[in-house]
Design a protein that fits this description.
Number of helices: 5
Strand content: 25-35%
Distance between the termini: 26 Å
Shape: globular
CATH architecture: 3-Layer(aba) Sandwich
CATH topology: Rossmann fold
Helix content: 10-25%
Oligomer: single chain
Strand order of the largest sheet: 1-6-5-4-7-8-10-9
Number of strands: 10
């Protein structure tokens, strides 16, 4: 992954869960506004996804946040930014450079945590070069089963004792979902449990906890 230290500042902001986030159109990545993602090119990071907000709300209930936190597929990065506000040192990763430069970086600046965050872009994989983490966060990243090996490799090589995964029950059109991901995680050497289930008209959503068996 490649570290980013120069970001595009914007005043086009909204707020959610007490945090600022940047509003940017898909033209930033050369796509139509109706496009949520294009596999291997753009993985949806410009949109503020509801499971990211679920995870942010959950983290707000915790009295203690670990010292070193990694958020994978961060997009807007609100869960990680909240951890930084609580004093954690946070690494924020997204697949797309444009997302990091135009959205995540600006959110970090506007929420006053620039000195506590490092930002990276690129695909998942072996992240052992970043050192060990206490906690890994990830939201809406299990939609495509083809990505499970690289995502789980990233989680495992982070050496974290806990990973929180915020996700929908099933992702229509791409085939990912809670059951398939949990099985893949078990096969990869993790124990999984459901910390929270959220049912509403639009979807059923979860926060899962992954802990290594090793």
């Amino acid at each position: 992954m490649i570290e980013v230290t120069e970001w595009v500042e914007s005043n086009n902001l909204k707020t959610s869960e007490g945090l600022f986030y940047t509003v940017v159109g898909n033209s930033t990545v050369g796509l139509k506004e109706t496009t949520d993602l294009v596999s291997g090119r753009y993985e949806g990071g410009l949109k503020l996804w509801e499971c990211s907000l679920d995870l942010t709300k959950y983290l707000q209930t915790l009295s203690i946040i670990p010292a070193r936190v990694l958020e994978l597929g961060c997009g807007h990065g609100l869960p990680g930014i909240l951890c930084a506000q609580k004093g954690s040192s946070v690494y924020l990763q997204d697949y797309n450079e444009e997302v990091i430069r135009h959205v995540t970086g600006n959110n970090v600046i506007r929420n006053g945590v620039k000195d506590r965050c490092k930002l990276f872009y690129g695909p998942w994989g072996d992240l052992s070069n970043l050192g060990s983490f206490d906690l890994v966060l990830t939201s809406e990243t299990i939609y495509n089963p083809e990505y499970y090996p690289s995502l789980l490799t990233a989680i495992r090589t982070s050496q974290a004792r806990c990973c929180l995964v915020a996700c929908k029950n099933y992702y229509f059109g791409v085939g990912g979902g809670v059951e398939l991901f949990a099985k893949s995680a078990e096969d990869f050497g993790f124990s999984t449990q459901t910390l929270l289930r959220i049912d509403d008209i639009a979807s059923t959503r979860y926060i899962l906890e992954l802990t290594p068996k090793y």
